[in-house]
Write a structure and sequence with these properties.
six-stranded parallel β-sheet, Rossmann fold, alpha/beta, Glycosyltransferase_grp1, 407 residues, globular, 2 domains
Length: 407
């Protein structure tokens, strides 16, 4: 049985888009008969045992942080500490291949261990860390930290035997940096369809509790980062309500922009039509999805959103929900305008309001749109299909002078 060790930023039982992709991937690999485990460093902030089982998946923890928090010394010591933990697990568990996932610190920790033990090393990039920092408001494009992180990203790619990316935008960016196309493989974001059956019927008690009886509900469920463009969505609401008086906005989640967005909503002329729920337990999220007519993803135009495909629109399609999104590159890889969803120009509240008003008025076409979008996910973006993309990459590396474990 082939053993794959995944080096991760964080994992279940924490909930995030990152952990849900990881869960789907590891579950799909288990389903193909592979033995998989994960290992995390100090960026996994949840309390728990050193070896933890979550959803029948095994994760090893390497706790502890450098006493110095002076960058980049602290990060370098954290990388070395994680590398030592990976090395100890490799000696004990003896995996056949190491598969590190972005951000780049995990790859920098894993690469020397793989080389020391003669193991194939795969690096999977879900987003470039330097662009994620800009999108999260913790960095500036082109500053010293950005350039250093980009250099480290390039170094990690050079040391990997194979590179996986989640979308074509990332692949093309690496090729432009001089990486051979033959080294890069795309494993797109997907949905674990075992988690998405028939859409739940509307939770009428919750609808009444939130004051949404008789409303046309635009929803966003996720993290409140600047790049998500929720300020543009709030700015679009007076224009939308002028054309669709029953339109309401339901915002579920939290994040760095939460306070600013609440203040913006309170100052809006249609404040009574904007509802903040806050964060909700993951097992209750489906109740809020059940109340939405349209899930809206108004991401701003920037390198992060142009290059990276999000997971949320696919999950909404899988749940039989209508999707409207800004026409940034990451969304254009997922959504065919007028077929599986509706696209509108980014950073343009008026265009967003117009697109949402037209979609709300076209109720006769909703069922067909939902059907086509769900079929797209089943056909092209399920993890049962996505996991097959890893097999030829692994197999080539494992048979390139490495013995595949048979028991």
């Amino acid at each position: 049985m082939t053993r794959i060790l995944h080096v991760l930023d964080h994992s279940l039982p924490l909930h995030s888009g990152y952990t849900f992709r990881t869960r789907a991937l590891l579950k799909a690999q288990q389903g193909r008969g592979w033995d998989v485990r994960g290992i995390t460093g100090n960026r996994h902030i949840a309390d728990g045992p050193l070896v933890e089982t979550a959803d029948d998946l095994v994760f090893h923890r390497v706790p502890g942080r450098s006493q110095s928090r002076i960058a980049p010394l602290a990060e370098w010591r954290d990388v070395r500490h994680l590398s030592s933990g990976i090395d100890a697990l490799v000696r004990d568990w003896k995996p056949d291949l190491i598969h590190a996932h972005s951000p780049v610190l995990g790859a920098l920790a894993a690469a020397p261990v793989a080389r020391r033990h003669g193991l194939p090393f795969v690096y999977e990039i879900r987003a470039f860390w330097e662009d994620a920092a800009v999108g999260n408001g913790t960095g500036l494009e082109g500053d010293l930290r950005y350039r250093v992180t980009r250099f480290l990203e390039d170094r990690a790619v050079a040391r990997a035997d194979a590179v996986m990316v989640i979308c074509e935008g990332l692949r093309q960016d690496l090729i432009a940096r001089g990486v051979s196309p033959d080294k890069i493989n795309v494993s797109p974001n997907g949905v674990d369809l075992d988690l998405f059956g028939d859409p739940s019927p509307p939770d009428e008690a919750l609808r009444s509790q939130l004051g949404l009886d008789g409303a046309e509900v635009i929803g966003f469920i996720g993290s409140f980062y600047d790049y998500e463009g929720l300020d543009d969505l709030i700015a679009a609401m007076p224009l939308l309500v002028a054309r669709r008086p029953k339109a309401h906005l339901l915002l579920v989640g939290g994040g760095p922009r939460a306070d600013a967005l609440r203040a913006q909503a309170e100052a809006s002329s249609v404040a009574a039509h904007i509802h903040f729920v806050g964060r909700v337990p993951h097992h209750e999220v489906e109740r809020y999805y059940s109340l939405t007519d349209i899930l809206c993803y108004p991401r701003k135009a920037m390198r992060l959103t142009e290059l990276v495909t999000p997971l949320k629109p696919l999950e909404a399609m899988a749940q039989g929900r209508l999707v409207a999104a800004s026409s940034v590159g990451g969304h254009r890889e997922l959504i065919e305008d007028g077929v599986t969803g509706t696209l509108f120009p980014p950073d343009d509240p008026a265009a967003m309001a117009d697109a949402l008003a037209r979609l709300l008025a076209d109720r006769a076409g909703w069922d067909e749109r939902r059907r086509v979008a769900r079929a797209f996910v089943e056909r092209e973006r399920s993890w049962a299909k996505n996991v097959v993309r890893y097999e030829p990459v692994y197999q080539q590396l494992l048979t390139n002078g490495h013995v595949v474990r048979t028991s």
